Amino acid sequence: MSTPRATEVRVYNRPMSTWWWTRRRTYFVFVMRELSSIFVAWFVGFLLAFVYSVGRSEAAYQDFLDWAATPWVVVINVIAAAFLALHVVTWFSLTPQAMDVRIGGQKAPAAAIIASQYVGLAVVSAFVLWLVTR
Amino acid sequence: MSRPRVEPLVWLMFSGGGVMAAVFLPVLVFMFAFAFPLEWISPPDHDHLSAVVGHPLTLLFLLGMFVVLLVHSAHRFRYTLYDGLQIKAKRTVAVLCYGTAAVGAITTVVVLLSAA
């Protein structure tokens, strides 16, 4: 039981609809971007399942590939990949606002920062692809 | 002395995870979720993958990447529940989100060590 108090402070919370973000396109994209977090977690689980199968045996690895090719897994992966793409695009676009990059004392233009990240993505992708498939 | 706050560390890991998700995850997803299972590219043989996955550098890299991805995901989902779905049970949401990430991190260690 709480002890009685002389004064009770009551804060008024303006009620807000659970569906507030469906009213505007920008709000909707914001919430979709935040929901990409679920799909990032899904891919962590998916990749861990892959690593686990490779660690077990060749047959387990083949089973993983077969499982990953079943229609429902492919459907989930397609949806998840769409959310991941949204994350990539929004993340790169936000970087110039989050980071103050200076080259020779001059503020680097936002477009250059965004473009350099796509170059980074391409280089990393090419390297990982080479490492795995060589 | 003020109590050390965990929030800055979580934001740092959120950012790190965001970068990893944007830069490293797309190619991994392309290969392992689509190209190999659907045979757009013939899957690498088991011996090669086993050598790549079992290499200590790969293990350390994957461990770091998976952990920051999990924290990134938990942190962002926490705010999705607060702001998006207007859930105000803040402590419960935080414990559930970071708790799940912690369980995921432990699972990651176990799985990676099993493949090493």
Automatic annotation (TrEMBL), chain A:
GO cellular component, one term: membrane
Pfam families hit by this protein: Fumarate_red_C
Keywords on record: Cell membrane, Membrane, Transmembrane, Transmembrane helix
InterPro entries linked to this entry: Fumarate_red_C, SQR/QFR_C/D
Listed transmembrane segments: 27-52, 72-92, 112-132
Gene3D superfamilies with a match to the protein in the record: Fumarate reductase/succinate dehydrogenase, transmembrane subunit
Record's protein name: Fumarate reductase subunit C
Organism in which the protein naturally occurs: Nocardioides immobilis
UniProtKB/TrEMBL annotation, chain B:
Gene3D superfamilies for this protein: Fumarate reductase/succinate dehydrogenase, transmembrane subunit
Keyword Cytoplasm on entry: no
Any one GO biological process: fumarate metabolic process
GO cellular component term, pick one: membrane
Keywords: Cell membrane, Membrane, Transmembrane, Transmembrane helix
Transmembrane segments: 12-36, 48-71, 92-115
Pfam entry (one): Fumarate_red_D
Domain of life: Bacteria
Annotated InterPro entries: Fumarate_red_D, SQR/QFR_C/D
NCBIfam families reported for this sequence: PRK05470.1-1
The protein, known as: Fumarate reductase subunit D
Organism encoding this protein: Nocardioides immobilis
